[in-house]
């Protein structure tokens, strides 16, 4: 039964103790009582082991906070996010620093056991608390006493036995307990977060608890921020009522899935950036190379602020390596294309991400009049009466409200695609690949290569005129700076001759593909499903043929399988996606094997990564069929990975994977996949070939995980 520490800091000792002695956020606190303390005085103030009353809590808070009050010691930390927010509001100097300074004289840590672990007796918890606080440096024979108390009040909302430790960081002589202390063996300083993990692992061995397998098996385990975890639980309102959780899932878990899927689908670093932005992730590069300040050495990622933000309304960013050992940028680069052109494209993509967003200002209003530009969508020449008549007739038929909604949807799609595009060619390709949008360029008079604008429409299956034809809109009428001239000026796209040529070619292909790409949609879906099915079969054979259960390649296999599952879940409805995400998280939990980083571009592309790419390229309607076409093979690979984890001693992880496999099989039991006849698939294969299917040697699309 591994022990899990969770640390937080604050300024009000009285408030913390009152919470620990109270009913909790969801009435989960039962019989709160003190099991250990730094001294007899503190133990007695908390009720001496009896059930705590309100009076006990008040007395305990006063005793714990006494040294800080007597000496007037301040324990502060400068909040970098708050400082940046203050500076953005115009504050400078000491005013900005004062607003960003946080009082953190209270240190709080919970020690929890898993829900399936047996509860510990009071004496064991008391001994663990004393040893833990010694290991954390609060009980230091070479320093004055630091006051702390350990409170036991029943199981967590998940059913796990646990204690809470509340400590003052001001010692009895007025000095401050340092969070950073020398590491006992490897040298250098160690913060309280990693120290808590190290001390907890040592205590697991000392008290005969189950040692966290990731600690002994060289596999990184990722914790979750206390505040984010708390946001997924019922919230207690000021009036005492219980409200629904703020969020359904911890953001770091969601981000790990989405980043893993995007990274697997991408063949290059620049494509990773584009796909992440298309998936509405907030990206930021890290540039810490002292020899080349412009070199990107890592990245951070977050959900959009409207989904989850800090108190200043800014996205909460997570480093790639913090999400998973296998999601650090150096590890991801191992399997992406690495040459001079790819590196240049990657740097341009990151520069575009880090530049000021071109859509930060207020949107200019979008006219609701129909497209009446000098060039037609069809042939690049002047409008004809029939074209104008069809457009006007469709407005009359659809109604002004429907057309406003259509334009709003087009605007939203185009803005997101423009934000995620590092070059004009990327934007043209993104428009061409989007399942809901048709796009055509407008060429300069007398030119077949000089693109001066473009028009867009929703696919006729979404909205059309009386004849079933698309209702076109000039991008300049959509607002938000979507006119091509404005995008070129504001988005910072490269304008050299090479990029202009690439953009022209991409626009030309957009014009050609618009009329062809949906002519055989149903057959194309079957062809995509057939392709994904073949990739999944190859992946199943690769994984199940490995005979060495101790190979470290199983962790890579787990990450690639998790990526395919995560990509599939992105396009499933929430009910269907739940069990698929559960399995993706379970496999992702064993993907973070610690090892040295290999050279960029040396890893082969696996069939599971191709499954992920096909899933992400599909529309929402396609994904259910694609998932059913690959489910049997992906689950078979997952079972093999679970058996390997058992053999390597990761029994808890293996059980979690098996549970998720069972839930997925049960949920999709009545949805079998029936492959299309091979001859039908072959007839549409060339037309249905997805954008993610590039010319990669087919014999090198998998890793041999046993070698």
TrEMBL record:
Output compositional bias ranges, type Basic and acidic residues.
510-519, 696-707
**Which is one Pfam family of this protein?**
Relaxase
User: What superkingdom heads the lineage?
Assistant: Bacteria
- The protein here is known as MobA/VirD2-like nuclease domain-containing protein
Residues of the region (Disordered) are 222-244, 354-400, 508-542, 668-707
MobA/VirD2-like nuclease domain location is 100-209
């Amino acid at each position: 039964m591994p022990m899990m520490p969770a640390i937080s800091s604050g300024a009000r000792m009285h408030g913390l103790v009152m919470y620990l002695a109270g009913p909790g956020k969801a009435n989960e606190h039962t019989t709160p009582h003190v099991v250990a303390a730094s001294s007899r005085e503190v133990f007695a103030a908390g009720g001496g082991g009896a059930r705590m009353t309100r009076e006990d809590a008040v007395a305990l808070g006063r005793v714990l906070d006494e040294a800080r009050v007597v000496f007037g010691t301040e324990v502060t930390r400068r909040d970098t996010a708050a400082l940046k927010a203050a500076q953005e509001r115009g504050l400078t100097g000491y005013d900005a620093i004062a607003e960003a300074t946080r009082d953190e004289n209270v240190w709080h840590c919970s020690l929890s056991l898993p829900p399936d672990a047996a509860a510990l007796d009071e004496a064991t918890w008391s001994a663990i608390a004393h040893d833990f606080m010694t290991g954390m440096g609060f009980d230091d024979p070479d320093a004055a006493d630091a006051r702390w108390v350990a409170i036991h009040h029943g199981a967590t909302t998940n059913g796990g036995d646990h204690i809470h430790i509340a400590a003052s960081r001001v010692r009895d002589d007025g000095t401050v307990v340092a969070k950073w202390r020398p590491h006992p063996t490897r040298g250098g300083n160690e913060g309280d977060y990693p120290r808590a993990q190290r001390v907890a692992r040592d205590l697991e061995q000392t008290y005969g608890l189950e040692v966290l397998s990731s600690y002994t098996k060289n596999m990184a385990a990722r914790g979750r921020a206390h505040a984010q975890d708390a946001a997924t639980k019922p919230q207690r309102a000021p009036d005492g009522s219980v409200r629904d959780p703020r969020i359904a899932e911890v953001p770091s878990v969601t981000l790990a899935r989405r980043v893993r899927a995007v990274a697997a689908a991408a063949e290059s670093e620049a494509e990773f950036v584009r796909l992440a932005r298309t998936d509405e992730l907030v990206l930021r590069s890290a540039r810490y190379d002292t020899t080349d300040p412009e070199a990107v050495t890592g990245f951070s990622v977050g959900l959009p602020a409207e989904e989850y933000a800090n108190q200043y309304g800014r996205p909460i960013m997570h480093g790639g390596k913090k999400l998973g050992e296998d999601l650090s940028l150096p590890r991801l680069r191992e399997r992406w294309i690495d040459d001079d052109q790819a590196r240049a494209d990657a740097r341009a993509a990151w520069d575009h991400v880090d530049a000021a967003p071109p859509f930060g200002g207020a949107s200019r209003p979008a006219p609701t009049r129909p497209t009446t530009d000098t060039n037609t969508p069809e042939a690049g020449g002047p409008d004809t009466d029939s074209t104008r008549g069809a457009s006007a007739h469709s407005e009359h038929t659809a109604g002004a409200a429907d057309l406003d909604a259509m334009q709003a949807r087009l605007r939203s799609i185009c803005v997101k695609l423009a934000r995620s595009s590092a070059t004009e060619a990327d934007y043209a390709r993104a428009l061409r690949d989007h399942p809901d949008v048709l796009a055509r360029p407008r060429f300069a008079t007398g030119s077949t290569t000089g693109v001066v604008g473009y028009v867009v429409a929703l696919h006729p299956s979404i909205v059309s005129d009386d004849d079933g034809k698309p209702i076109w809109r000039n991008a300049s009428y959509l607002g938000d700076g979507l006119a091509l001239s404005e995008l070129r000026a504001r988005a910072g796209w490269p304008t050299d001759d090479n990029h202009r040529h690439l953009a022209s070619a991409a626009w030309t292909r957009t014009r050609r593909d618009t009329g062809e790409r949906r002519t055989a949609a149903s057959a194309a879906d079957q062809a995509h499903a057939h392709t994904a099915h073949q990739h999944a079969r190859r992946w199943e054979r690769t994984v199940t043929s490995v005979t060495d259960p101790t190979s470290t390649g199983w962790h890579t296999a787990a990450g690639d399988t998790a990526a395919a599952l995560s990509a599939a879940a992105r396009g499933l409805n929430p009910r269907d996606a739940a069990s698929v995400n559960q399995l993706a998280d379970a496999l992702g939990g064993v993907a973070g094997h610690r090892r040295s980083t290999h050279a960029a571009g040396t890893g082969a592309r696996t069939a599971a990564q191709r499954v992920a790419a096909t899933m992400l390229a599909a529309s929402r309607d396609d994904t259910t069929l694609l998932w059913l076409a690959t489910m049997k093979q992906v689950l078979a690979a997952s079972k093999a990975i679970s058996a390997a984890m058992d053999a390597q001693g990761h029994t808890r992880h293996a059980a979690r994977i098996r549970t998720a496999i069972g839930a997925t099989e049960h949920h999709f039991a009545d949805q079998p996949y029936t492959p299309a006849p091979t001859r039908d698939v072959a007839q549409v294969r060339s037309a249905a070939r997805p954008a993610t299917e590039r010319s990669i040697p087919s014999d090198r699309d998998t890793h041999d995980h046993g070698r």
